[in-house]
């Protein structure tokens, strides 16, 4: 059974190309263009991994993180950002339950490896 990854990003091009590459890597991908749709999809489809942009038109990755953590401790949450994050912002995200940060632009192969590492660590628990 393939593992599900939900990608929440308002940049359709990035979201689609990320979904395409992760699908080639053997993951089942789900997409959402905003926080509201992403949260609803995560609750309904229960993906193993949620990759979210920190800055969304209707919310922030921090709020999604908080919302999803209230719902389940099982998600692996990865935050994407297109700008440099201050130590305070990183700390805020991690304290809200983010498992990993990646800065755009990033190498999709590297992201795939990080996802697999996080999933295998979780499987060992």
Query: Order of strands across the widest beta sheet?
Result: 2-1-3-6-7
Number of domains: 1
Helix content: 40-55%
Task: Return the CATH topology.
Answer: Rossmann fold
Helix-and-strand structural type: alpha/beta
CATH class: Alpha Beta
SSE ordering: EHEHEEEHEHEH
Whole-number radius of gyration?
13 Å
Overall mean confidence score, pLDDT: 90
β-strand percent reads 15-25%
CATH architecture: 3-Layer(aba) Sandwich
CATH superfamily: Response regulator
Strand elements, count: 7
Taking pLDDT < 50 over at least 5 consecutive residues as the criterion, the unreliable ranges are none
C-alpha geometry: globular
First-last Cα distance? 19 Å
Largest sheet: 5 strands, parallel
The total count of helices amounts to 5
Report on this structure.
The protein is α/β, with parallel strands linked by helices. It has one domain (4-118): Rossmann fold. The protein has 5 helices and 7 strands; from the N terminus they run βαβαβββαβαβα. It has helices spanning 12-24, 35-45, 61-71, 87-95, 108-124; strands at residues 4-8, 28-32, 49-53, 55-56, 59-60, 76-81, 100-103. Strand 1, helix 1 and strand 2 (28-32) form a beta-alpha-beta unit. The protein starts with a strand and ends with a helix.
What keyword list fits this structure?
23% strand, Rossmann fold, two-stranded antiparallel sheet, alpha/beta
Could you give a short description of this structure?
It contains five helices and seven strands; from the N terminus they run βαβαβββαβαβα.
């Amino acid at each position: 059974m393939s593992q599900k990854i939900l990608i929440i990003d308002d940049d359709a091009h990035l979201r689609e190309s990320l979904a395409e590459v992760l699908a080639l890597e053997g993951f089942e991908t789900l997409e959402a263009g905003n926080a509201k749709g992403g949260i609803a999809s995560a609750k309904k489809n229960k993906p193993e991994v949620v990759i979210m942009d920190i800055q969304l038109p209707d919310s922030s990755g921090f709020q999604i993180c908080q919302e999803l953590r209230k719902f389940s401790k099982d998600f692996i949450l990865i935050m994407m950002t297109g700008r440099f994050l201050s130590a305070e912002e990183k700390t805020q995200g991690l304290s809200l339950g983010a498992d990993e940060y990646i800065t755009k632009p990033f190498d999709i192969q590297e992201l795939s490896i990080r996802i697999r590492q996080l999933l295998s660590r979780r499987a060992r628990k």
